[in-house]
Amino acid sequence: PARNSSDAVAVIGLGRFGASLALELMAGGTEVLGIDPVESVVQDLNGKLTHVVRADATGEEVLRQLGVAEYGRVVVAIGSHLEASILTTSLLLRFGVKDIWAKAVSEAHGTILQQLGVPHVVFPERDMGRRVAHLVRGSMQDYV
Ligand code: ATP
């Protein structure tokens, strides 16, 4: 039986980060709507997510037609396309989506997202770099 969309997650931007996140949610039994404007990206994930749609998420009408406004949880995984990240995120805030997770590629990008009112801003490269530093230090200690 289809779960209602409040349980499902919309993932906007299906690059390395967004695709990995979407597939992990699917593996854990969460329904996922994936959105990306690049045809090859959409084709690669076709059949692997509950729904995959080729669309530009910066369009208000596009997001409304896809029902994104009804999702309780939305991830904005657009990175280097700063303008697209900010436009999409501000539309989601305007729709009243409660649980927005947005990826930032720089401290400045993260600051803007936080100022807009995004509750969860994540910095994958920065945080993974820090994490790997601890792993590197740990593995060095294995050799001394
Ligand atoms: P990653 O590290 O996750 O691969 P990145 O930081 O290099 O990504 P981008 O390439 O900017 O980030 O964006 C990730 C994905 O977001 C891409 O697949 C891109 O097509 C998609 N994207 C870009 N603009 C939009 C948009 N307007 N609407 C939806 N998705 C978009």
From TrEMBL:
Domain of life of the native organism: Bacteria
Domain RCK N-terminal: 6-122
Single biological process term from Gene Ontology: potassium ion transport
A GO molecular-function annotation: monoatomic cation transmembrane transporter activity
Protein name per its UniProtKB record: Trk system potassium uptake protein TrkA
Organism: Serinibacter salmoneus
